[in-house]
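Discussion board: Methods & Data

I've been asked by a reviewer to show the raw model output for two of the constructs in my manuscript, not just the figures. I'm not sure how much to include, so I'm pasting the format here to get opinions. Each protein appears as its amino acid sequence followed by a line of discrete structure tokens. Is this the kind of thing reviewers expect to see in a supplement, or should I convert it first? Here is construct A:
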Amino acid sequence: MTPQDFEFVSSLLKERSGLDLRADKTYLLESRLAPLARQHGYADLDALIADLRASKSEKMIREVMEAMTTNESFFFRDGTPFDIFRKEVLPHLLEARATNRSLRIWSAASSSGQEPYSLAMILSEEASKLAGWRIEILGTDIDSSILEKAKVGIYSQFEVQRGLPIQMLMKYFQQNNEMWQIDASIRAMVKYQELNLLSDFRALGRFDVIFCRNVLIYFDQPTKAQVLSKLCDQLAEDGSLFMGAAETVLGVTERFKPVPGQRGLYARAA
């Protein structure tokens, strides 16, 4: 791939998805897009990029974006955030929302559904405390194909072995040969919607909890600040933002502050 082609594709990705690729990531771009070129019958990646330059095909731009999206996810990923949600955040919300008995949770960049389904299982375990409550869990992602997988909720043996406690597997999944499908009652708790975090998402409304983990690390500082500011606008005054272990708001935005002693948890700044 020529430097000019890398600049063209990386600029396109930055503009459309926020993905910030440095020149040393040429190998990553080539490895992700070469199969796409073969799939569409191009002689090589150079031919795909040449056609993309000429046609500006929105369909192909979307496929390039989806090919570059990192869809790494697993159930109860990193453990600690889900423990904090269950032990600290949820009890607070049960008390603070006792009057309107409503709870809205957003899993941004939800990938193939493991994160929102993990949250749904936690809430299902607390069903006795949530009787009569209106619970909404929204999972969004820029990749439409991965959302279709999430909606179906079928996972391989390898996927269910990554982070999912055996008792949760036995309780909430049905096995079909080598695959496992999450129970319909858990699937019904989560709604999925295609969404680009660079877009205007004010129409989604306010949330009590937002999980936006392991996605901002792919953005540059100005884009991170922009997305965090918009997330803050959608978060309830006493709401909670969960970010990935390698992510922080420090030096990026002053609209959030870390919650002392709770790794990865942030609150709106006063």
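Construct B, same format:
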Amino acid sequence: MSAPAASPSAERAAAPIAASGAGRGASPGEKLPFAARLERNLAYGGLGISALVLILFTPVLLERRWYITPTFILTLCTFVWYGGELLLIRRRFFRPWMGYASTALEAVLGSIICWIDYHRDGALGAATGAGILLYGLTVAAATLRLGPRLALFEGGLASAQILVLFGYFFPTAADPRLAGQFVLPATFPVTVIKAAYVFGLGVIGMVGALAIRRLQARAKERAIERERVRNLFSLYVSDQVVEQVIAGNLKPDGERRVVSVLFSDIRGFTTLSESRKPEEVLRLLNLYFDRMCAVVERWQGVVFKFVGDGLLVVFGAPNVLPDDARAALGAARDMVAEAGRLAASGEFPGLKIGVGIHRGEAVVGPVGGALRQEYAAIGATVTTGARVEGLVKTLGRPILLTADVRAALDEPERATLDAVGVHALPGRGVGVELYAPRGAA
């Protein structure tokens, strides 16, 4: 009988957000830095847009309308840049200058489009074309990189280009077509206002990027703190119970479940306690419980309680376990085997344990008062399991299970069990049919 895979929460660790601006290539198994992931996403967007433009311009080129050739070449260069950038990032190579290069390319792209529009359609084309609109979009893209300096750099570069283009290269608007348009004449004061507006967008982008990064840092701190509390909580409560508490799924009045209950204790523990110092007894108990809890975790059981040297384990709560009886029997066998290894290695000399298993309906849920509660299982099923374990020493078998457990097992597993007979349990008026794994000693 093989154990199921361990629960994913068994080896849980906080995954911190990668710092931006790492300025180095990541190793093949390392997660990309945060700045690299942002740049990669924007590069995908730039690659997709430029590819779409190339596809749309191809039929026009085929018709030999060559006046759009500069735009086509510009788009092709943009496509090549973003494709190369993506290739470098995919090969785990990223440098902070790549973000600045991309933002500079995007700003220059707007100026080149304005230049093309001016020489094709005059001042009206330059003032109303896509290039002007592109400046604002490039500042927004720089902000999405969450680099405050990048956003300010983009705003400054775009505003400087507006001043140079519309203040020097494009003469003061004398284009009669501007009359009556919803466009201010390209006088120098108006150009300064436009440049200041774009630079203001860069400042806003810088402030926005700073605010987002602060929120991100706080979210990271909260996630780390929550994981720390979760890990500390898991030392005292099972991982499955922790998950249910955090999710708010525990019902205050409990719920009825069909579960398999496993009790175990150490044979001769009283004699052991009397012959050793308390510190040594505590050390041995911690060693024993550490190994037993690991076995229980592998079989997806939940340790409900430590009682002296005893252990109460439930299979099927709080999470439903379809094969709870099989898991309980598998865990019992592994626990006995692990105890044998501890004894044979000398880590826990003379260690022997007994295990009793019963299956039935129980009420599981929080028990306690307003100041303190614990997750518990209540009902006759739990009491019967404890009393079955009490017969282990009397019957000389390390593992005992009831007919209810056997009935829930598959036929091949039933064949590995020996009937031990019907035995009376203390406090019960009728006998209970018991079984034991064959060959267990």
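Answer (T.O., handling editor elsewhere):
This is acceptable in a supplement if you add a one-line summary per construct. For B, something like: Residues 6-26, 179-184 have pLDDT under 50 and may be disordered.
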